[in-house]
Specification:
Strand content: 25-35%
Largest sheet: 7 strands, antiparallel
Distance between the termini: 78 Å
Structural class: alpha+beta
Number of helices: 5
Length: 237
Amino acid sequence: MKSKEIVLTFAIVLFILFGTTNSLGSWVGFNVSDLVQKSDVILLGNIDGPVGESKGVADGITGWVTYWRIEATYYLKGDQRTKDVYVVTPGAKNKNVRSSNDYSLDEWGSSSVLLFLRKDGDSYVPLSPQGVVAVEKSEYYHRSDESLNGKGILAEFTITNPQTNTMGDFENFITTSVPVMPTDASASLPLKIQSSNKLDNIIQNAIHYKMWIIMGVFIMGLTTMVLLFLRHRGKVS
């Protein structure tokens, strides 16, 4: 094959690969009104790190997903009132399989977030990356004797990354919202994480027992060799 044909073939392959990757990375665009309307739960809270990974399907997300625990500060929509919420995002950091659809809750550089979520089983999924809005806590704190309202909430948080929407639209939503504080009740750990933890425990126990078996075989072999050596030495003497 001539060099020009090789170059052309290589270029076509690259085009197909990049074209496929870009198509996987496409998300439906939402304005703030869409995010509010389509969300089952909207909350302000702090990211308490990833708590597990699982392979399966979550709200249309196939492949590996990451589970996050969010400590809720205020609920702005929905019936959820627990002091924490488990949120699912596509992709897993410790797995080799990656997609351009993957994202994490903390990749916008903040530990506090405004989340627009859709309920999926015993956990929640952001409507899209646009449903993860990075915010920062200000020095203002809501006092117990103050009435709880949207203007007070907006004084507590500053939006740092509004994604493709304008900051003003998010601020208007927060100002007109009716915030509710979480209760002391904890959310149930998602079943997929529980199953994953059980599997990890089984694997760890299997590895532990295997090590003891190998050690026992090694000791028995070493003891047999010593006894044979002593027996041989006695015959020579």
